[in-house]
């Protein structure tokens, strides 16, 4: 019986950790690239239970990772980095999608091929300034992909 107790304690601890996660990332994906392409985008849906900010990201496949916004300014679509991160309203999903908010993977170290998986670390900050790190494995989709498929549960 003593050998089961540490195992049960570990299972209980892991269960509590998962229950305390404040931020969830759904349907992450990375757009594929051609051989010499040096940048691509990461897209997903982020929900923060209590609200906060998406403050940074990193990946071993990119030299630089930035949170970006694409928006219309007059008749011109412009892309810009969000150095202060992206606001996450409490309980409301925020879409990272082509033509809107997204994560830029810059200075790519390799081609992103459809079917590959890209490890990405996302960092979120709550209103209490506590940081939460979420590790994801984002599948690479074809270069011409425009959106993640909708999953019905």
Protein architecture, described:
By secondary structure, the chain is mainly beta. It has one domain: Sandwich (Immunoglobulin-like), CATH 2.60.40. Helix content is 11%, strand content 52%. The protein has one helix and ten strands, in the order H-E-E-E-E-E-E-E-E-E-E. The protein has one helix at 4-20; strands spanning 23-31, 39-48, 52-58, 62-73, 76-81, 86-88, 93-96, 102-108, 117-126, 131-141. Strands 1, 2, 3, 4, 5, 6, 7, 8, 9 and 10 form a ten-stranded mixed β-sheet that branches. Strand 4 (62-73) and strand 5 form a beta hairpin. The model is unreliable at 1-19 (pLDDT under 50).
Fourth-tier CATH superfamily name: PCu(A)C copper chaperone
Distance between the termini: 39 Å
Tally the structural domains: 1
Q: Helix/strand-derived class?
A: mainly beta
Average of the residue pLDDT scores: 86
**Poorly predicted sequence stretches spanning 5 or more consecutive residues:** 1-19
Strand content: over 45%
What portion of residues is helical? 10-25%
Oligomer: single chain
Q: Remind me, CATH topology?
A: Immunoglobulin-like
- Given this structure, which CATH class is correct? Mainly Beta
**Biggest pleated-sheet summary:** 10 strands, mixed
